[in-house]
Amino acid sequence: MALKEQITENHNEFLESLRHRFMDEDRKAALQRFEKAGFPTKKDEEYKYTSLKEITEKAYNFFPKENHNITKEQLDSLHLGEENFDWITFVNGKLHKELSKVSIENVEFLSFNYALNDEKHRDVFEKYFNTIAADKSAFTNLNQAYCKYGFFLKVPKNVVIEKPIHIFYISQNQEENTFYNTRNLLIVEEGAKVEIIESHHNFDSTYVLTNSVTEIFTYPNAKADWHKLQNDNDTSYLIDNTFARQEKDSLTTVNTFSFGGKLVRNNLDFIHNGSNINSFMNGITIIGKDQLVDHHTAVHHNFPNCESYQNYKGIFNGKSHGVFNGKVFVDKIAQKTNAYQQNNNVLLSEGAIIDTKPQLEIFADDVKCSHGCTVGQLNEDALFYLRARGISKKEAQALLLYAFANDAMQNIDIEPLKEKISKLLAEKLEVDIEF
């Protein structure tokens, strides 16, 4: 049975499995919207270069088994050496406190499922939940219909969380292909600060499809950083939808590092709701074989005196396929906007493909907006320079590629994360680099 038929067939059973009922009608409405639109195909402009048939023609289990046998060694291998971090571990959708380390205080942190059942958080959910993700796509509607797993975090006014928080989503011990709809809600109130690292890991040979939706609300003078570390195995599919709404004088960063997974689609949407806002989006993609990574970004400049920066680097080998579609919208009242967008790519084989399309829609006249993209191979003069100094061709190529990708992670201020990304870059490029 194809996925779309399973979605409709399993929904009533899914609703019956939930204890919280106040969202039932909204879930049913979201499912109806999904059924009406169906999954996007290559006939849809937003999916022109990305076929989802490999995902949608498989059958999945909608009710993952909760039991697992994750070992300490397996968990340790996922960490960044972050002894001073906090971390939250979800296994097969369930939050496991015994596998987590939580020392954060003066904040509201709950698993998404628990928060839905907690009456005192009902008003918060009604105020924030699905207000910026509502009806954006077939996948956001599908997530609203089926969301259960994930977390809710509210950082109160002027609270600075000093330790980064690493969120692990792990799937293990599943005998069938498994479908997860994860949901994250982050609220960073005025003057507050928080840094999140998110990673997904499939330990089985069966396929995992994760349809994730994250909503980030950053209030005046607040700072929210979200780092996505995507390095899963070849039986993993990830559709990630992240929405960030910023108020005046705030700063929000979303960094996306895509090194693994069979098919990854990242949809990133920034909405400016005030002046003097700064938004940063950086990405590094290194893939090979027949992997596909698709980045779709959008920044909505709705107020004056705001800045946004997009810097995406891609390295593609084998028969891999990369897609970048970046949009910047500047409203007529958004004078003094400064928007920068750049996508640079290197193809290492004849079978690799990149489709890149930076876009600007500007309705204001006093702005500084630039965009550009490059697609090419390594600089032969630089390669010759290194080889003339006794460096092998393979190592010289890797060093040039490392330097090419490195500037997309310059604004990471979490040292263990920066070191982890550097090591993954070195591993993917098969070169020894001292850190």
TrEMBL record:
Biological process, per Gene Ontology: iron-sulfur cluster assembly
UniProt domain SUF system FeS cluster assembly SufBD N-terminal: residue ranges: 9-167
Signal peptide span: none
Domain SUF system FeS cluster assembly SufBD core: 175-404
Pfam families, sorted: SUFBD_core, SufBD_N
InterPro entries in the cross-refs: Fe-S_cluster_assembly_SufBD (IPR055346), SUF_FeS_clus_asmbl_SufBD_core (IPR000825), SUF_FeS_clus_asmbl_SufBD_sf (IPR037284), SUF_FeS_clus_asmbl_SufD (IPR011542), SufBD_N (IPR045595)
Family statement: Belongs to the iron-sulfur cluster assembly SufBD family.
Identification of the protein by name: Fe-S cluster assembly protein SufD
Organism field: Chryseobacterium cheonjiense
Gene: sufD
